[in-house]
């Protein structure tokens, strides 16, 4: 049975050592920039070099995260960083940005790339899309079932990686704008503030509370797949990923050690597989929000969530008993030690933490007590009989696990053999070799002599040469070819061992593959692609960008101003995204020049059939407009046949262009030879991603709503660009439906009663902001911004960007609203260049405010994101 790779996180040097010491096959970590965990300590460049050498000496691969979206101004620096990483020995780079992928394939095709879970790959066609871009591996979306993973494995050749343990995002990774839009800290830029872990209240369409108190309605439990290891391996995955670059080294050590043991035990004796209670207890003790196996066996409904507490729960210890002064009796459900940390869930006042400094059993002070014992210990004054107690830290477990990676005598993980040969009166030769065939020799400076005592027999040699505690190695095999009974001073034998081991370390590092070309070759590629010498830069404010036509030499790139930029100042055309046929007709009637017909079908509505699609296409054509139907924003492998049939229906109805929002849909239209327009959920952030899609035949793109005006000005393209200027954008798209779990009774074994069909709902946060929500017919959950983005009074500035289209997002809105909003923007756009702009745009802004009772926002156009 093939060995699956166990991949552990490292947010700092200590966590790296913890991962390696406890059995990780690979470690993923980030530098100080361009990685999706900017809150971790991360690695400076010199630390990165050290980390790569440290891991490689121990046969551990290092994958470096450069997995944020990048602006045009950042891409040259990111490419220089990739070269540094490749030269330093990184085994692969984890990426999200399609522009970075395109540049890396041009400049550094030798460097392996891994598609981040931020790329939202949930089907085989999406994986094929990355495979055709030459990527080594993809991290699949965490919402997939075992059956879907198995189906994807059968259709693609690239490696598949899945999350096996740790925190779960509520939303599909790469599709969450909640932290970004609410607080300006983007998950796509590595700065998520985790507002999903806050408390929310479920309200109806009139704002009435449907539950007595606010709870953590978007806070998931932690993933734990220890008991599902056989099924995951059988599905064909190549790597198990432990989440946790923000976690302590102790967490990394415990979780890595446990998964290492359980995986190895299964691979050795599959028929006897089991997970021991102590193993489950230890991973729960080090950190848990309660555990779930996620979506592996289908949608778990409410069992996915940890409503009561968004932080570490610890292990249930017992309940507060009778109080005697400052102490309380507690019957222990788990062992307790002096120095352990507790969390008392007091009836009034929430949770109160305490460290056990003293405990008593049967009237005498003890240092530890076993499960089942009744003890007395000091608890906060607010603790009352019946309150629950959880053990949040175990001092013995922490002390034990810390020794695995802090001891100066490292436990070697790389087996080596040694051969010793000598004759009397000659120097002794020591040969050291590893399993990969690396072999070195060292010769003693002193000559051997006949032994009067302590001859160099097997026992003496093993004792002296096996002293490898401060190296990555452990002595596996010793070959003694000494002729006769000879001796050599132990000091010389130890020096010889150190010399040979140092040589082997250098040779092993030198043999580790370097995955970049020589610097001169890289500089030549850089000059061809960017148009300026490596290391010099184009000058402030000038960011040469690619063209999509492929006309500039072998690279198809040229550093010139794009056709789009040359047309800056022209009035952009008006596009409106709607959710049903009635809204489409309303938009066309009010002056939309393009209508996107949403790929999602909301609960309570019916999908549009072929006849109505044909009628809408005719209507658009008669009015000199166009209708572009969309494929779903997200779809899983099990939905592939349905999505394929939908595409076929759209084409039969006469659709000439299809709106696509994920890699799977891109691959689907590519295979069919269908024209496409790329939607903003693809997180298109720079000119290079646009150029890559242009070369694939797409007719245009809608750029990320996280871009600010300056970043938008930098983007050059040979195909039309579009920006969203109005709408309450979906801040989250999730496979978990809050309505179904809270009001519909949905659990792993129970169906939902579909409360979403009975009215409108929203979530209210602690500040009183109300976030509307919708649910589609696939039971995906969409949470919208409390405020509508509105730029109607800034259309002059938008026009100066040179974009071809501005879009209104209204897919969840009714026809009457769509008609009013479209007419408002039609009048505003028509006023540009007439001399009446100021008056008309100001009036339009007042009207837009009336359409948005919760208020409006400028989005990121003026503030940007971190």
Task: List its traits.
4 domains, single chain, TIM Barrel, 23% strand, globular, 25 helices, ten-stranded mixed β-sheet, 866 residues, Elongation Factor Tu (Ef-tu), domain 3
Supply the CATH superfamily name of the largest domain: Aldolase class I
Give the N-terminus to C-terminus distance in angstroms: 45 Å
CATH topology of the largest domain: TIM Barrel
- In round numbers, the mean pLDDT is 93
- Percent strand equals 15-25%
Biggest pleated-sheet summary: 10 strands, mixed
Let me know the number of strands: 41
Parts with pLDDT < 50 across at least 5 consecutive residues? 548-566
Taken together, the total number of domains comes to 4
Report the C-alpha radius of gyration, rounded: 31 Å
CATH class annotation of the largest domain: Alpha Beta
Please state the second-level CATH architecture of the largest domain.
Answer: Alpha-Beta Barrel
What is the global morphology? globular
- Helical residues, percent: 25-40%
By helix and strand content, what is the structural category? Answer: alpha/beta
Helix tally equals: 25
